[in-house]
Amino acid sequence: MSQQIYPVPAHAKEHSHLTPADYARMYAESVEQPEVFWAEQAKSLDWIKTPTKIKNTSFDAHHVSIKWFEDGELNVAYNCIDRHLAKRGHVTAFIWEGDDPHSHDIITYHRLYDEVAKIANGLRKLGVGKGDRVAIYMPMIPQAVYAMLACARIGAVHTVIFGGFSPNAIADRVNNCQAKVLITADEGLRAGKHIPLKDNVDTALAEHDCPSMEQVIVFKHTGSHVSWGKDDVWWHDLTDDCSTDCPPEVMNAEDPLFILYTSGSTGQPKGVVHTTGGYLLWASITHKYVFDYKPGDIYWCAADVGWVTGHSYIVYGPLANGATSVMFEGVPTYPDVRRIGQIVDKHKVNILYTAPTAIRALMAHGDFPVEGISGESLRLLGSVGEPINPEAWHWYYTTVGQSRCPIVDTWWQTETGAAMLTPLPSITAMKPGAASHPFFGVQPALVDGQGNELSGATEGNLIITDSWPGQARTVYGDHERFVQTYFTTYPGTYCTGDGARRDEDDYYWITGRVDDVLNVSGHRLGTAEIESALVSHHAVAEAAVVGYPHDLKGQGIYVYLMPNEGVAVTDELTKEVSNWVRKELSPIATPDLIQWSSGLPKTRSGKIMRRILRKIAANEYEQLGDTSTLADPSVVETLIEQRLNR
Ligand code: 6R9
Taking the model in full, what pTM does it have? Predict the structure, then answer.
């Protein structure tokens, strides 16, 4: 791991909400007197009834119960829209940038109010009310946000299904939460390709029994022909005569706001439930401090609203803070790899938040992604979703951020609601690849396999010892699974499933999922560490490392590599890469087997599915399990054909 330290840039201090002394004082209060601290922070929201009961939480496996602000009442859509209107209604909420570089749109808070009210009234007309579930399967267009906020306005619970998911996944989610309405579009657009969203919904509903589903609302986006059934209604027909007046529903702080399905290590995806008060506060306070957001800043989170990052950092956090965001329909590589830079220049983006997988995809093209790009509007960069290897960090820092912008490497999970461990731009000297320090109220700890807490500079399983407002409250319809998954491994604490290292300066470094830790000849190695070394070799674009059963070592190191464009794969190169890891990391980390491949099995959100790679490496390729969530399932067949240790 890189030990280089990058001091806080002077401009970050000038722009900031916080000084180091503020952070120290506020963090101490947040963990020593959470009731006082969070009662104060909660004032940043507009409450219909101000909460008096602040924290009522138990991580005891026999009685896991998490309640924040439980006697408070508020409405999320009111907080995200209405309260900004008087002074800032003319301010842009979203700059929408289409897949086609020539299309964009501006949505002010006034317009957002009208659009959300109309579709909210449309939903009410269909009989949707408080507590009903609504599925949203949309492209990255403003109507996705209108739909989410419309649900929040009338107290319905949304579940956004990522637009890249297949019909099976749609049906599973609809059935699991018994959604009665689904909102979709005729088609999506990505890199010029038409994505048949309505067709997928039709297939889901035709091939699966979805008894709860009553009505499908379809937004006309591309205008292509779609087939039509008796339960389908066009968005424009439904909302045509709807008023722009839609009184917000009074919600209890603990009423559910949304369900979001996420994969675990076992079984079907879990419907993680987030609530109205605690989640909104968590999303907005982290957005404010992690990005040092100030009115006037142009902020761009390049995630998809189908993932938690989109929920918290495109929709709820920024809107609660009255922010101006870019929302991007397309992909970073279309029409070519300069697109991100072009959007930054076009809309004068100040804050850019993206994922290491995107950074590495661009980095493989050297300086081309910034050719002809000024990039001078940028002042802050963010990273999320996986450990960022120092190589990618440096490329991001120097090539995109021009060695001027701090990088906030935010560690969090669908279950945590929003950022948990993160540098703060005006406070934390950066160590490339370190998620650094806890946000207010977050109490991380490291434990060994038996749950004994480890002190000082060490490595272990990352747990969180007490509740924070944005924490998921349950798994929809299966509280027992919630308890089993998160609270029984190390009783009395929240088990993150991630491993982490804490260094001598108390910085946390996420080493990857705990089930990805290898034990090679009795030495513990993080797969992320090895991957980081591998991708720092000039020939390597992406790397995935898994363990496989090895007679002598216990576990051997199986390496899957994707070469950079134009690289010729030879035996010499393979040897060179192997020696590289030996040299960069340790002889213990020397790969046993290296398989080159033109693709890796990734989920549609860009995460490598190690489960599959582990099976292939272990020669258990007949028991691969569910591969339906892969972006390109054919990659798996190629990998099996060419696997090494037959
Ligand atoms: C927000 C999000 C959660 C898992 C998490 C961890 C990995 C996320 C990270 C990171 C290292 C970071 N992860 N951010 N690892 N550094 N900055 O991605 O949620 O999709 O639920 O994934 O992603 O392994 O446990 P989710």
Answer: 0.85
